[in-house]
Amino acid sequence: MKRTALALALIAALTLLAPAGARADWNDGGGRDRIVVARVASFWPYHLRLRDGRTLELHPGTIINPTGLTPRWGMLVRIWGHRGEDGSFVADRIDLIRSRDGRGRDEDGGR
Fold this sequence. Notes:
By secondary structure, this protein is an alpha+beta fold. It has one helix and five strands, in the order H-E-E-E-E-E.
């Protein structure tokens, strides 16, 4: 009886921890969705370079919010995406994170 209760408690604990693993960082294996928050270094069609040196790919249908936004240097963005078959990070959605001044940059211009 005690073993059954212990086993059920262990299963319940592991079930609660599973969502934490679903938000893994960019470098782990697998095809799960990921979220990256970073500043933009440069943008060109179907590619976005982040200030930390990472480059990610966009695809036809990548959503950029607010609609019509062109990512620019220093903008703080939240990127939802997944790992591509070749190991690259593919962006499915990019959202501008607005600062208090409403421009998507810190008061120092994002520097």
